[in-house]
Amino acid sequence: xxxxxxxxxxxxxxxNARKLTVIxxxxxxxxxxxxxxxxxxxxxxxxxxxxxxxxPDTLGVTMGQMLHHVSAVSAGASRALxxxxxxxxxxxxxxxxxxxxxxxxxxxGRAQAVKLEGGREIxxxxxxxxxAGIPVVGHLGLTPQHVAALGGYKVQARxxxxxxxxxxxxxxxxxxxxxxxxxxxxxxxxxxxxxxxVPVPTIGIGAGPGCDGQVLVFHDLLGLYEGFKPRFVKRYxxxxxxxxxxxxxxxxxxxxxxxxxxxHSFEMDPEEYAKLVSGLKKS
Length: 283
What we know:
The protein has twelve helices and eight strands. The protein has an eight-stranded parallel β-barrel, surrounded by six helices. Helices cover 43% and strands 13% of the residues. The protein is elongated, with a radius of gyration of 24 Å. The model has no long low-confidence stretch (mean pLDDT 96).
């Protein structure tokens, strides 16, 4: 019997009740695997720009690309909540545009919620999107869409003043209506402080064990993405090596003639084949 779909209120209710498991997914197959493994939330991250599209960062990801992958993940998910990243410049410039693009991710992509990067500066967008009936997740700390301004992928909120601003940003996002907040690459103590301070669940990535849940990228935790391994990533498998070995064995067998064998082939009825040959000889 299919379990009931997890909703934004379900996620919010997990605060102080249970830990949330979040896994990124970029297609229907990955969604089905992550969901079967017990993921509460499937995050269709703009990280797809790096791990799927081979781009150097997340900045080049378009709304069209996000819609394509969100739709695929939604098709493969039956229980987990599908959370879609809003890509760079799909919400920053204009509140009305932010609402329209969030609406597209829900209406066309069938996402159940959207995620925005930033603090107090995006409160107007968050309020407007929530007012339109779309659940919103915030994202603070290392915000990859701000990588140019941050000067690279660095741990954030390391000073008392920076940590104070992060706490204030988290409070502002909660007041604006966010039902959860992702904390990326911040000191363990700061993440724990924010988690205790805000009434909504925090989802950590490189933010220590004190958060209400944890998220990792599908390709990172399975050892599929070898371009870059952040310190906060734990690899639960090294699938890239296994895949290379399997693909190499296929190539070797094709070249040697070992594949395919009769086991992997189809035969024509002998009488029908005889008619074919006879007919070809006469023509």
